[in-house]
Amino acid sequence: MRYLKLSENQNKGNDIAVNEYGERIAPKPEKSENTARNNASANNRSYSRYQKPFRRPALPPKGVSAAAFGRQQAENANNNNNNVNAEAPEKPHQEYQQQNDYRSYRNKPYNKNYNKNYKAPRQQNDAAVTEIPAQPFTFEKTAFEKSYEQSKPYSRKNQEIKNYNQERRYQPRNNYRDDQQAAPEEKYQHVVYHSNHRAVKRTPLRIIPLGGLNEIGKNMTVFECGNDMFIVDCGLAFPDSDMPGVDLVIPDFTYVEQNIDKVRGIVITHGHEDHIGGLAYLLKKVNIPVYATRLTIGLIEGKLKEHNLLSQTKLNVVTPRQTVKMGCMAVEFIHVNHSIPDAVGLAIHTPAGIVIHTGDFKVDFTPIEGGIIDLARFGELGNRGVLALMSDSTNAEKPGHTASERKVGSSFENLFAKAEGKRIIIATFASNIHRIQQIINNAVRTDRKVAVFGRSMLNVISTAMDLGYLSVPEGVIIDLEAMNKYPPEKIVLITTGSQGEPMSALTRMAFSDHRKVEIHPNDYVIISATPIPGNEKTVSRVVNELMKLGADVVYEKMYEVHVSGHACQEELKMIMGIVKPKYFIPVHGELKHLRKHAGLALSMGIPKENILIADNGRVAEISKKALRCTSTVPAGRVFVDGYGVGDVGSVVLRDRKHLAQDGLVIVAVCIDRESGMIVSGPDVVTRGFVYVKESEELINAAREVAVEAIEAQTDGGYFDWNSIKASLRDEISHLMYERTKRSPMILPVIMEV
Q1: Terminal-residue alpha carbon distance, the chain
Q2: Which is the most buried residue in 7, 34, 268, 455, by most CB within 10 A?
């Protein structure tokens, strides 16, 4: 590049730059007034809505370039800042001060690059849902807790925000106006504000018990939050005496079927029948994954095989301290002690807070297997803050502590010594693997062989041996056919029937109805169980029948042959003190147990308004602000009779009770279709009412009444078969009550010819 000198007329005193080829190079023009004005306008349009807009900067006067005017403005700003007596300029919002200073003409000198994209320093958002006060010491957190705390659930439009917006969108207009006029604490009771100015609705948790409250058995609870829900346990209950012919009672699955798209899985706490017995019937209706510990999964597999469901069901084995995601919720498994191995409690992490479900538990410091209850984890969760505690109430009426399972082992040693020279028969729960292990240990010590009776007992022992939960030396357990090869004093029989079930092995032995075992005076019978409430009479009847046959019978009231798997009052208080919940919901028990447990919570300092005694079908909504019942869902009882599920209802049970109490009277008659004349009959047949041969007068009177009723309905020429049946039923029922003061079921049978 070189410079070419031109005449004054050509360039007006300025040199022109040219390249090596002599081509002219145009100089870079200075910014005009329009350019400066446009840049200033663009800068002023970018102010934040959270602060006052910047005033438009003054334009340079005529004859002064924009660059010179900018330098002059910068010098004036510096002079104002150095002057301490000068009035401070108005500051924008504190949060946006840092990111908007770069745009201000007052605080920085003019820079041609001021309009480039500014990258503000990253700000740290709130990570935890609630602020946790500082503790004198910390505990090691699980991987789920770390990821949960490091996440930023309030920095993005998540599902909770969508749910909140949808709820607001579809509210009626009048409700919206009322909401606008409501008090701030009522209007925004579920809304949380953070430093990033994004409002997020804290979705409340819905707890829906479908079974297990105000009753013993068929435990089932639904946890629902937003568009996600999961199930805890699905058990059965045994029929009461007022349910003739019913085999099992299971929960009503209607609500689960109606919300199948929301269900993320089912969690099982342990392998007892009142927690897994109804699972097969549920999986026939809804196909959802199952999460449980190793032994529990093994017991579930046996039940699913019977119902041909094993191949189509996804079974997931979990371990204590493991966490499973359930949509917006997560379930953490916590090891507890119970009368069956691999029992767990649950820590349910929800947007509303942490809810602890203890499952069936006790505090056993000398367990047979598996270690003591994980009190450390309960304490860690308690220090973090627990929203609600749902605790086992079975033994809430019993003071003190529950004895250790090892105490039963010591009692067995003494009883085996007393039964020397006799055959020992022990009835216990099939699922009590710890109890069975101690029986086998004492049999090995006294050189006895073990025979097993009962289908459920055989299935549980086989599963426990395959999974390594039951240690049995080779050759100790023998087949029933080989039992007669050994002398009676060398035999131990382990059987079902500790609850006096009508079809159990022990009951059939007591009533001399068993095909392979007969009770003799040389038998020593041990009933190692406590009668379930409602079974006291049946158990007592079995004990009496065994004694009539000459056997020595030992039961719980005589020796310590049974300890409970449920916590007593002091253990319940211990868990409450460790967890320190805000709300308390007693579960698993009859109403008397729930009320007693609620009284314990009240004595522990939990306010009365924070304690809820729920009921099956009542929806409990829980949040940081309140615990209340909002609505109801279907939660009745479904009866299983043979292969029929739900086909036995209240009407069928009423008829069965009627038949059982008063019997049946059948009136059969043949009538001509056109004339209405009686062709043959009427014949009267009774079942369960009277003995016909000894009540001929009553039967003849019933025939006469039947003839009169039929003729009264057919005299006019026009007759209705339903009217004839109703008349026969009323007239004969009236006669039977007058003569016998009994009301049998009347069944008219009319045949047309």
Answers
A1: 130
A2: 268
Q: Which residues contact 126 (CB under 8 A, 6 or more apart)?
A: 152, 154, 194, 195
CA–CA separation, 610 vs 357, rounded Å?
16
CA distance 603 to 570: 12
- In whole angstroms, give the CA distance from residue 265 to residue 229: 8
Give the residue from 567, 615, 612 showing the smallest Cα distance to 585. Answer: 612
Every domain of the chain with CATH number 3.40.50.10710 lies at 406-554
406-554: in CATH 3.40.50.10710: yes
CA–CA gap between residue 450 and residue 223 (Å, rounded): 44
User: Which strand (E) or helix (H) includes residue 306?
Assistant: helix 294-306
Global pTM value: 0.68
Average pLDDT, the chain: 77
Mean of pLDDT values over 647-661: 76
The 10s digit of each residue's pLDDT in 113-163 is 444 444 444 444 433 333 334 344 344 555 555 555 554 444 444 555 555
DSSP 444-462: HHTT-EEEE-SHHHHHHHH
Which residue, among 1, 208, 31, has the nearest Cα to 622 in the 3D structure? 208
| 60 has pLDDT over 80 | no
Strand partners, 698: none
Q: Which of 346, 332, 356, 378 is nearest to 578 (CA)?
A: 378
List, for residues 667-682, the tens digit of each pLDDT value: 888 887 777 777 777 8
Cite the residue boundaries of each domain of the chain with CATH code 3.10.20.580: 663-752
Q: Phi/psi of residue 342, each to 5°? A: 65, 30
Residue 536 contacts by C-beta under 8 Å, 6 or more apart in sequence? none
Q: Specify the residue for token string 């040219």.
A: 18
588 given a catalytic annotation: no
List all residues 6 or more positions away from 582 whose beta carbon is below 8 Å from its beta carbon: 353, 385, 386, 387, 388, 610
Whether the CB-CB separation of 453 and 426 falls below 8 Å is answered with no
Calculate the alpha carbon distances from 26 to 15, 21, 112, 725 in Å.
11, 15, 21, 118
Quote the DSSP letter at residue 178. Answer: H
222 beta partners: 208, 231
Note whether 409 and 438 are within 8 A (CB): yes
pLDDT at position 115: 45
Encoded tokens for 441: 């240990």
> Which one of the listed residues 252, 392, 523, 588 is annotated catalytic?
392
Q: Which of 566, 588, 593, 597 is catalytic?
A: 566
Residue in the block written with tokens 């043959």? 680
CATH of 207-401+565-638 among 3.40.630.30, 3.30.70.260, 3.60.15.10, 3.40.225.10: 3.60.15.10
User: What are residue 370's phi and psi, to 5 degrees?
Assistant: 95, -10
- Record: fold of 663-752: Ubiquitin-like (UB roll) (3.10.20)
Is residue 196 scored above 70 in pLDDT? no
Tallying the residues shown for the chain, one arrives at: 753
Structure tokens at 652: 């069928």
Q: Are 719 and 693 in contact (CB under 8 A)?
A: no
DSSP at 4 = E
Identify the H or E element spanning 745: strand 745-752
User: Within the chain, which residue ranges are assigned CATH 3.60.15.10?
Assistant: 207-401+565-638
Can you list the alpha helix ranges (DSSP code H) found in 446-590? Answer: 455-467, 505-510, 536-548, 569-579
Q: Are 495 and 457 in contact (CB under 8 A)?
A: yes
> Cα(550)–Cα(197) distance, rounded to whole angstroms?
82
290-292 vs 315-317, strand pairing mode: parallel
